[in-house]
Every structure is written in structure tokens, then in C-alpha cells.
């Protein structure tokens, strides 16, 4: 490994074997996951300016591919206080797509608010869909299923568990 023209000895290597289990044999491609998420986002935000998407991402890294492609496909920046080093992210809370995080994310979601505090300017309640990208859920399935697993619609809010391959 070269670091500033010096060779550095590698002391240890970590190999992530999380998905080296036969139960993960049905992981769809990154492109298939993106297509499913993008279609879900499009179907939701085209309904009205009061329809927002919250990408409930639990990590700071690994979603760059998703964020970049969603921004390009929907011509909408993604609101986030973190990851502002990416050109497709913004702190503008008026955008319809959010990946912002808050210690009590679920509490905000139930109150029809996005964790950054975004609300409709005229007080009309937002219709928010929460999309939770997850690779782990692939291993929980015994057969091949859709990339998107829709949860119950409760009081005008929806939760979708979305298969996302980040590697």
C-alpha cells in the first residue's frame, strides 16, 4: 500500500462475509434495486407537491449510487445535513426527497414530518412515504420476491422496505 510514496505494511485485513451465506442467493442487481426505488419515488412525488419521500438510511456511507441516480432521474436534490460533499445533496428543506436523519426519526415520520423539520408552507399535512433501503432483508426471504415490499398504509403514511444492494 502506497501512502505518500512510502510503502506501508498491512497489519491486518478485514473481510466482510455478511452475505457469504447461502440464504443470500437472491440478491438482485444494484440496477434492479435502483429501478424499483426510482419508480416508487416517481409514483409518489408526482401526485402533488405535498407528497414527500424520506429515505430512511441508517448509515452515512454506501448510498452514494442511490442518491446520485435519484437526483439525476427526478431532477430533485436530496435534503441531508450529512454527506454534503456530494453535489446532489442540499440542506434546502423544500425538496421532495429527503435523506435527513434525526435521533427520533420514527417520531417525526408519524407526525407527518420529515426529520429535518420540513413541512408544507401552508400548513397542509404532508403525505410522506418512508423508504428504508436494506440489504439484510434479502436473506430473510425464502423465495424470490419484488425489490419493494410495501408495508401497511396507516393514517396516510406508508412504509416501504426496499431491497438495496450497495456493493
TrEMBL record:
Example GO molecular function: damaged DNA binding
Top-level taxonomy: Eukaryota, Metazoa, Chordata, Craniata, Vertebrata
InterPro entries: DRMBL (IPR011084)
Nuclease keyword on record: yes
GO biological process, alphabetically ordered: double-strand break repair via nonhomologous end joining; interstrand cross-link repair; telomere maintenance
Descriptive protein name: DNA cross-link repair 1C, PSO2 homolog (S. cerevisiae)
Lineage: superkingdom: Eukaryota
Domain DNA repair metallo-beta-lactamase: 87-149
Keywords attached to this entry: Endonuclease, Exonuclease, Hydrolase, Nuclease
Keyword Nuclease attached: yes
PANTHER family: DNA CROSS-LINK REPAIR PROTEIN PSO2/SNM1-RELATED (PTHR23240), PROTEIN ARTEMIS (PTHR23240:SF8)
Amino acid at each position: 500500500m502506497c501512502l505518500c510514496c512510502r510503502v506501508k505494511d498491512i497489519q491486518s485485513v478485514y473481510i466482510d462475509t455478511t452475505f457469504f451465506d447461502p440464504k443470500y442467493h437472491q440478491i438482485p442487481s444494484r440496477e434492479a434495486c435502483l429501478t424499483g426505488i426510482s419508480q416508487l419515488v416517481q409514483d409518489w412525488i408526482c401526485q402533488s407537491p405535498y407528497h414527500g419521500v424520506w429515505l430512511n438510511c441508517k448509515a452515512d456511507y454506501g448510498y452514494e449510487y442511490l442518491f446520485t441516480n435519484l437526483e439525476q432521474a427526478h431532477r430533485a436534490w436530496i435534503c441531508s445535513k450529512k454527506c454534503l460533499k456530494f453535489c446532489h445533496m442540499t440542506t434546502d428543506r423544500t425538496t421532495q426527497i429527503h435523506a435527513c436523519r434525526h435521533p427520533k426519526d420514527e417520531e417525526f415520520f408519524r407526525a407527518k414530518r420529515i426529520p429535518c423539520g420540513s413541512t408544507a408552507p401552508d400548513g397542509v399535512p404532508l403525505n410522506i412515504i418512508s423508504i428504508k433501503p436494506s440489504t439484510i432483508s434479502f436473506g430473510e426471504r425464502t423465495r424470490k420476491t419484488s425489490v419493494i415490499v410495501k408495508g401497511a398504509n396507516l393514517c396516510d403514511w406508508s412504509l416501504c422496505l426496499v431491497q438495496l444492494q450497495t456493493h
